[in-house]
Amino acid sequence: MLAEVNREREQFLAAQRGVLGEAGGEGGARLFDHIEANYADAVRLLATARSARFDGTATLFVAEKTLPPGMDVTQTLGRFVEGLEVQRLDCAHVDIISPAMLAQVGPMINRALKAL
């Protein structure tokens, strides 16, 4: 997991340098530190949380490139919902919010919301 966090950190910092120039590197590192701290808090909270089963259909966007080998998302998450619609994306988790992926994911979210 640490290797994945470090990989995402490097990708994030490289993207920040591309947007903000070299001067943005330090600010980007601080921003990533905050993101990382929020993630750690979320993991800590989720480790003790007990979720009620959702009696509906959930849509799950799966970043295939960083999906742990052998993980069956339907089996792992399906027990928490009545139905699970899986949208598989050819990207890493960190890339889901990139402009290119949002161009693909946005219409999928729009269709899912219209179906409600």
Q: Could you walk me through the main structural features you see in this protein, from its secondary elements to its overall organization?
A:
The chain has helices at 2-20, 24-48, 73-78, 99-114, and strands at residues 54-63, 81-89. With 116 residues, the protein is of the alpha+beta class. It has 2 domains: 1-50, no CATH class; 53-116, no CATH class. It has a two-stranded parallel sheet with strand order 1-2. Helix 3 links the parallel strand 1 and strand 2 (81-89). The model has no long low-confidence stretch (mean pLDDT 82).
Q: What kind of sheet is the major sheet?
A: 2 strands, parallel
Give the H and E element order.
HHEHEH
Q: How much is the average pLDDT?
A: 82
Number of helices: 4
* Secondary-structure class: alpha+beta
Beta-strand percent range: 15-25%
**Which runs of at least 5 residues are low in confidence (pLDDT < 50)?**
none
Count of discrete domains: 2
How many whole angstroms does the radius of gyration measure? 17 Å
Span from first to last CA? Answer: 35 Å
Shape: globular
Strand arrangement, largest sheet? 1-2
How much helix, percentage-wise, in residues? 55-70%
**Structure summary, number of beta strands:** 2
